[in-house]
Design brief:
Number of helices: 9
Helix content: 25-40%
Number of strands: 13
Structural class: alpha/beta
Largest sheet: 5 strands, mixed
Strand order of the largest sheet: 2-1-5-3-4
Radius of gyration: 25 Å
Oligomer: single chain
Number of domains: 2
Order of helices and strands: EEHEEHEHHEHHEEEEEHHEEH
Length: about 350
């Protein structure tokens, strides 16, 4: 009579999830589905189904509404290292309160900044800022809180040091976007190597790894900005040769000198080095690359689909945006000239 393993539907199977660094074990019947697991998470952890995201090795990210609600748990999730991302109802209320307080504080700081004297900007500098910049910014829409990634990309675009370096080298980048944390990550016996940035076709598209591996946070701003300096150098030199590193270090120094918001401190005497090893802080990329089409959220795809950006589309959007910014700058200058002549 001795049954082996799970011979009865009454034998529950354990499904282990990691949430905020804590392990949770859910006992489910062998015939349970992904919907049953989601309901159990909602009941025991108070995380609404709509807020749940399951990061599963080889399967990727699963979230409601599930493509297949009858997806069997026993055959696909048992004994797998699963990460649960989601916020409980109580935490959401707390976050809303904190967000309101932060918004009020940001509005106060913004008002204070508006009253501060701004650095002198010539008409030529305004035109150069509209021309030598990132023509489009796009977060990945399938990742949580894309508006936060967009704000991060805007901060990089508007960074005074980055703008100064872009003008100095006449860099115009078609698209600046974020990289999916699941992409360009390699596990070896020496550890984990993470590509921090990619540059396609010398500035047609630059991708940056903004988020942490768990999707719930962002990497250090100065590290990402330094990665962007690295990728901008690939606008000129694809391989990591001596010419590339000389330009990369030059851009880094220019960015630091041009960052007047940090006091305009010069780091011209600082020592720079070529990255080696597999540390995530120095694994920038494997050099500039060419070819293929960029599909938003699709990595280095070579075929176009929905959301694909051809080189013609990128450059057309860039030209439209550049013309619009130049026209706005000219209109403001004309208004200023009329005001001056009337006084």
């Amino acid at each position: 009579m001795g049954d082996q393993g799970r011979s009865s539907t009454s034998d529950a199977i354990p499904i282990t999830l990691s949430h905020h660094g804590k392990q949770h074990v859910f006992q489910l019947q062998p015939e349970a589905t992904i919907k049953d697991l989601s309901n159990k998470i909602q009941d025991e952890l108070s995380i609404p189904t709509a807020n749940q995201k399951l990061l599963i090795p080889k399967l990727g990210l699963l979230k409601a509404p599930f493509p297949d609600p009858d997806f069997p748990v026993a055959d696909n999730l048992e004994n797998k290292k699963i990460t649960l991302m989601g916020t409980s109802s109580a935490d959401i209320e707390s976050l809303h309160s904190a967000s309101k307080a932060a918004s009020a504080r940001d509005e106060h700081l913004a008002a204070a900044r508006r009253n501060q004297p701004k650095p002198y900007t010539t008409r030529r500098a305004q035109q150069d800022d509209a021309k030598y910049t990132f023509m489009a910014l796009r977060p990945l829409p399938h990742l949580p809180r894309p508006e936060r990634s967009l704000a991060f990309l805007e901060r990089l675009r508007d960074d005074p040091g980055i703008r100064a370096a872009m003008r100095a080298h006449r860099f115009s980048v078609g698209l600046l976007t974020e990289m999916d944390p699941l992409a360009h990550t390699e596990e070896t016996h020496e550890g984990t190597t993470r590509i921090l940035g990619l540059n396609r076709n010398r500035g047609e598209v630059i991708e940056l790894r903004l988020r942490t591996d768990a999707y719930d946070g962002y990497r250090n701003y100065k590290i990402i900005r330094k990665t962007l300096c690295h990728e901008l150098a690939h606008n000129v030199h694809s391989p990591h040769d001596r010419n590339f590193w000389d330009l990369c270090h030059q851009i880094e120094r220019e960015v630091d000198r041009g960052d007047w918001k940090s006091g305009g401190r010069s780091v011209g005497d600082a020592e720079y080095y070529e990255p080696v090893g597999s540390s995530e802080e120095v694994a920038y990329d494997h050099g500039g690359w060419t070819g293929g089409e960029f599909v938003l959220g699709g990595g280095n795809g070579s075929s176009a689909g929905d959301g694909a950006l051809s080189r013609r589309e990128v450059m057309a959007k860039a030209a439209e945006e550049r013309i619009k910014k130049l026209a706005d700058a000219q209109r403001k200058q004309n208004e200023s000239d009329r005001d001056s002549s009337s006084t």
